[in-house]
Design brief:
By secondary structure, the protein is mainly alpha-helical. The protein has one domain. It is built from 2 helices and no strands. It is rod-shaped.
Length: about 55
């Protein structure tokens, strides 16, 4: 924060950084969440079918 304040950070700069962070974050986090949900669902289905057998 101090670095940005010393550099004369503007609202436009903050908005640009925020938008860049959001787009980069979505690209990596959504992909990771899809993998986690897929693995969890697969394990849950395996456990369910083992329980029924």
């Amino acid at each position: 924060m101090k670095k940005y304040e010393e550099d004369g950070d503007t609202i436009e700069d903050q908005l640009t950084r925020s938008l860049e962070y959001e787009s980069a974050s979505l690209k990596s986090n959504v992909r990771l969440q899809i993998w986690i949900y897929s693995i969890t669902l697969t394990l849950a289905l395996i456990a369910f079918f083992i329980y029924l057998a």
